[in-house]
Structure formats: structure tokens, C-alpha cells
Amino acid sequence: MIDNFIDRSQTNAEKYTLREELFGTSDVIPLWVADMDLRTPEFIFEAIKKRCEHKILGYEEIPNSAYEAQIEWVRSRHGFAMKKEWLYYSHSVVASINLAIKAFSNVGDEVIVQTPVYPPFFHSVTNNDRKVLKNPLKIVDGNFTFDFDDLRSKITSKTKLLLLCSPHNPVGRVWKREELEELAQICLENNIKVLADEIHSDLIYKPNKHIPFASLSKEVENITITTYGVGKTFNLAGMAISTIAIANEKMREDFERVYESIHFAQGNTFAHIAFEEAYSNGQPYLEELMTHLGKKIEKLQKALEPFKDQISFNSPEGTYLALLNCKKMNLKDKELRSFFVKEAKLGLSAGISFGREGSGYMRLNFAVSSKLLDQVIEQLVKALNERNSVIRKDKLGSF
User: Fold this and answer.
1) Closest CA to 174 of 146, 209, 212
2) Which of 250, 281, 312 is the last residue of a domain?
3) Is this structure's pTM higher than 0.90?
4) DSSP H or E segment with residue 134
């Protein structure tokens, strides 16, 4: 059932609605926004339908049972025990990042961003009049990892916060314990707090294991702000509901001063229901989803194998995002984007949008049906073959 093709083009889906604006044409398959073209779990719809039998939709509070469901989900899946008093409602991870920047730094302070990374990390820093302190990831043995020497060399007395993407979007890494522990030690030594964006933490491929940053030690727990949510795992981004977890009481006091000034209230009624149902009953759906996504990775790898001299990608350890390395195509970033839009008729996220370190890459969202992925592969393979044909003709003509 999860593999059924569902046409979203006639809805207000962001990835379809903005095609013309972003790509200059609506004749592309949109694979850029990080939500899924896979059905939201049926049991969530059933719970919402039942709530609709009550004919009043007034102000409502998120019930404690919803928070408890999330607490149990994180405990059972990731071995981290949170408490109800740590948790705050937020309508999005990006909103949470902005709140944390306001609460735990001042205008002119530095916030560490590890590039290439989800673009709102940059914007959230600069829009709040803080300075981006770039600590680019480095490639070791073909994989992205932290550059600790670079980080240590750049920290100053103005460095107050680090934005950690875990699992990482777009590079697909699920950070190992030893990587996180060294990062944590640097932050502890320099009195730097950490905002851990763990929105993709349920989308992990075996044998990898997500380790909540706050779970590393009591000391690390006390410098961490963690963002969680159901949007990615259960395709509920349109419900605009997530949570922020802060264990340190003094940090909660500082956070609440900013949080209360925004007046988030408690979100919407149907989001409360979807949130609780997902965390209470979502395990079977998640298992089916991960099986589906794993097959999509295999299909992509097989299709691109004949073109590895042009495009390659490491199988992601987490997320449903493939970061395609297109550097061997020897195209500038604008040319590379144009190839995907005009020749392959695919709307991907340009790697350069994740920072300079993303140059030469393209991010593809493979959380789609088999039917749609087959079409994506067909178009991409056709475009690559046609490009190769032109290159061969040009070479022959040069003799």
C-alpha cells in the first residue's frame, strides 16, 4: 500500500506549486522538497476522521498523552529518556532553530554551521544578526565527516552555539558515537551550546544507529537543545508540529523568555491527533517505509552504475535524500542544474544551495513510489545517454 502512486500535482503541494517559479517550467518531476510522495499512514486519517465527529474546532492544548507517546518512542528506539517538562511545541524545526539562536546568543555572536547543510541553517543565523562561523565537513575515504582541527582553529570568545544536523541533510551521514563525542568535548571546553536537529533520526538504514546528541553524557545533555518531529518519518510536514527538548533548567528559563514572546500557542487540533497517533502506533508503518526506501536506494545505484564516470553517490546512512556527486560531468553549477531541468526534466536541489562545499552535487529525494522512480530513472538515463552521444560526436569531429 505504501508504494501506491498518488498524484499530488493538483493539490497545493509546495514541490509542485513552485515548479514554474523555481525551475522556469512545470515540466519537471519535483524531487527537491524533503517530504515524501508516499501516503501518510491510514490510521492517522482514521483518528482525524473520528475527531471530526465532534463539531467544534476551538483552542486546544496538546494533551500530555501526546508528549508521553513521543517520550516512549524516543526511549524505545534510541535509548534516550526524556521528561515531559523538557518539551515545548514548535510548528517547525526551522522555527525552533531561530528561537534557540535568539535565546542562547546575542547580536553579533558567532553560530557554527557545518557545510554543506540545509540552507535555513545559514538564513536563521544571518536573519537574527548573528555571524555564520563555517566549519565545513571534510571528505575522508569518500565519506563526509567533521573537521575538528578546522573547528578548534576558528572558535572565539564570540562563538556561542553550534547547529548540528544529525542525521545530516544533505550528505546522509548518521554520525558515529566517537565523532559526536569529540564534537561534544570541543563544545564543552569552549562553553558552546548545541542545537541538534534530529528530525531525520527515525530514517536510519541498518546497521547504522542514531545516537541522540544529548544522550552522550549528563554534561552534554546540559548544553543541548534537540528538535524532534513526525513530519519526515510519517509524511506529516503539512501538520506543522514538532517539539523542542531542553533538559537544563536554566536553559529552559532563558528559552522560555523568547518562546513566550512569540506566542506559538499549541498548534492545531488535527496536528495533536496525528502527532500522538504516529508515535503511539507508527512502528509497523516505519518498518514498511524503511524497506521501501532501501529498495529505492538499490534501484538508483543500479541505474547509475553504468554512468559512474559522471555521477555517483554513497548510499545514505539515513534520510531519504541522495546526494549525487556530479563533479566528473565537468559542468559549472548553473550548467549542472540546467542539465537536470532541461535535459532530464527533473527538479532537484542544487548542491551549491547547501553552501560552497556542495558545488558539483545535486540532491535527489527518492521517497517516491516505484512507478515514479522508474520514470525519474528513465528520464535521467536518457539524458545522460544523449549527452554522451553529443560528447562522442564532438570528439570525433575534432580529429
Assistant:
1) 209
2) 281
3) yes
4) strand 131-134
pLDDT in tens, 172-224: 999 999 999 999 999 999 999 999 999 999 999 999 999 999 999 999 999 99
Is the previous residue joined to 212 through a cis bond, with omega within 30 degrees of 0?
A: no
Q: For residue 245, which of 99, 77, 35, 125 has the smallest C-alpha distance?
A: 99
Q: Are residues 289 and 270 in the same domain?
A: no
Instruction: Report residue 311 as a C-alpha cell.
Output: 555521477
Domain range enclosing 51:
44-281
Tell me the DSSP string of 345-377.
-EE-EEGGGG-GGGTTEEEEE--S-HHHHHHHH
Coil, helix or strand at residue 246: strand
**Does residue 326 share a domain with residue 210?**
no
Alpha-carbon distances of 231 from 203, 243, 328, 393, rounded to whole Å: 12, 11, 35, 48
Show Cβ contacts of residue 144 under 8 Å, excluding neighbours closer than 6 positions. 137, 138, 168, 171, 173
Query: For the residues of 71-85, what is the DSSP string, one character each?
Result: HHHHHHHH-----GG
Domain final residue, candidates 249, 281, 313: 281
- Same-domain status, 334 and 268: no
Instruction: Please check whether residue 210 is in contact with residue 174, taking contact to mean a CB–CB distance below 8 angstroms.
Output: yes
For helices 269-281 and 42-52, the axis angle rounded to 10 degrees is 140
- Say yes or no: 137 and 64 in one domain: yes
